[in-house]
């Protein structure tokens, strides 16, 4: 159905589309990268060329190979939005603005322009089924969720919509595996695996800040130095952009019918309102200019341990609940978090190391203290603690 010679269309040449186009071209596919904005296409052309040139400089690619990859990408302007240039594609990956109404309109047009193509969306937070519902053939629509930057991040979440043909899902998964990516299968639920399971990393850290347990620098220090995470939550939110992180949190919260477990933080809302978006505006939780003072954490091991215990217990609880609800398999949940957001360990494996009864006790203690449904233990943790079982027997 799909192979190395399949023409791949990528709709949207922004941050994600240009990376996905480069990945497909590097794997040998002829690629059509299309965008309604001529400026976005020009920027994509310049940025892909620069990344390939850097690969050559660093000795990661031969010059002829870089030229061949670049030569396989055709840049197609769509001034009227009509996706006709994608007609000959066997697979089209959509990476345009995160707006359900716009994506539905575009998928209906794509289906007419490329009647034989498999249609994939790179959406982070919308329902694949909701997008596919605009098509007369929803069986060949699925989610293919790359991480930013798509050229470097190994993980791709493959998401079947309600009507996706399992053979199409398998064929796309095999194709993306062949691009050197690590794929996991996720149910079509808000945030899929990573953007759901990672919520407490930010949300619980923001609660700690709100309650004045510690300042940003100390929480970041605790999670990196004591917890082993590659980056602290506040440093990471400043990198991602507080507007982007806040939007994902709000979207997951709304999509779960306002489950308090995912409630966004007022601190983060105020940061967005104040335009303190992080690196891109020069200031977020930290100052980012050349004269910015280095953060001064309070390196208190006991405090650090308490912070890490609370955040990690909430992360393990969320991962356990994703497993309980069949969002993905045990192995895919752990793989998604280590390859999608570089967690030092899979969360379920981490839960085993801490001990499932201990994780449960920590969540129950929070639930007793706050009386909030936010600290609701997953039924799976309760069941496992009662039975004395482990995630990895
Ligand atoms: P972006 O804003 O950088 O790029 C979107 C591009 O789509 C723009 O160049 C725009 O001109 C173009 N576009 C808009 N409407 C179009 C249409 N009707 N036809 C053709 N082109 C159109 O956005 P970004 O960040 O690349 O995100 C794209 C998608 O990928 C979104 O669904 C987003 O949720 C998802 N995503 C984003 C990640 C990120 O970290 N930025 C990570 C993973 C997924």
Can you walk me through this structure?
With 393 residues, the protein is of the alpha/beta class. It is 50% helix and 10% strand. It has 17 helices and eight strands. The chain has helices at residues 15-26, 38-57, 63-71, 100-113, 128-132, 166-178, 194-197, 199-210, 216-226, 233-240, 242-255, 266-273, 301-324, 330-340, 347-354, 356-370, 379-387, and strands at 8-11, 31-35, 73-77, 91-94, 118-121, 141-146, 155-160, 182-186. The protein has an eight-stranded mixed β-sheet with strand order 3-2-1-4-5-6-7-8, sandwiched between helices. Helix 2 (38-57) packs antiparallel against helix 3 (63-71) and helix 9 packs across helix 13. The longest helix has 24 residues, at 301-324. The chain is globular, with a radius of gyration of 22 Å. The structure holds 1,4-dihydronicotinamide adenine dinucleotide (NAI). Residues 11-17, 35-37, 40, 78, 81, 95-98, 106, 122-124, 146-148 line the site of 1,4-dihydronicotinamide adenine dinucleotide.
């Amino acid at each position: 159905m799909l192979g190395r010679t399949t023409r791949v269309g990528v709709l949207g040449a922004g941050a994600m589309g240009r990376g996905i186009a480069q990945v497909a071209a590097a794997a040998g596919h002829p690629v059509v990268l299309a965008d309604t904005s001529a400026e976005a296409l020009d920027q994509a052309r310049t940025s892909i060329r620069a990344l390939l040139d850097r690969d050559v400089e660093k000795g990661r690619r031969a010059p002829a190979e870089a030229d061949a990859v670049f030569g396989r990408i055709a840049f197609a302007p769509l001034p009227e939005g009509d996706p006709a240039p994608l007609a000959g594609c066997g697979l089209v990956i959509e990476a345009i603005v995160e707006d359900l109404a716009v994506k539905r309109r575009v998928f209906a047009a794509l289906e007419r322009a490329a009647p034989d193509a498999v249609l994939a969306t790179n959406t982070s937070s919308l329902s694949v089924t909701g997008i596919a519902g605009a098509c007369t053939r929803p069986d060949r629509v699925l989610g293919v969720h790359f991480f930013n930057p798509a050229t470097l991040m190994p993980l791709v979440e493959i998401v079947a919509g309600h009507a996706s043909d399992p053979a199409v899902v398998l064929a796309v998964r095999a194709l993306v595996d062949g691009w050197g990516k690590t794929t996991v299968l996720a149910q079509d639920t808000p945030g899929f695996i990573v953007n759901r399971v990672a919520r407490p990393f930010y949300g619980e850290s923001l609660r700690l800040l709100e309650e004045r347990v510690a300042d940003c620098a100390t929480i970041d220090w605790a999670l990196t130095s004591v917890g082993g995470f590659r980056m602290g939550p506040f440093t990471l939110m400043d990198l991602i952009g507080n507007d982007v992180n806040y939007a994902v949190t709000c979207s997951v919260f709304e999509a779960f019918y306002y489950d308090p477990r995912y409630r966004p933080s007022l601190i983060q809302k105020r940061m967005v309102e104040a335009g303190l978006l992080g690196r891109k505006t020069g200031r977020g939780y930290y100052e980012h200019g050349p004269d910015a003072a280095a953060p001064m954490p309070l390196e208190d091991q006991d405090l650090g341990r308490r912070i890490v215990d609370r955040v990690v217990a909430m992360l393990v609880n969320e991962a356990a609940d994703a497993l309980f609800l069949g969002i993905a398999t045990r192995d895919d949940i752990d793989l998604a978090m280590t390859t999608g957001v570089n967690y030092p360990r899979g969360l379920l494996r981490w839960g085993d190391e801490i001990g499932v009864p201990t994780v449960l006790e920590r969540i129950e203690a929070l639930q007793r203290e706050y009386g909030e449904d936010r600290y609701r233990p997953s039924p799976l943790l309760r069941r496992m603690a009662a039975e004395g079982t482990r995630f990895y027997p």
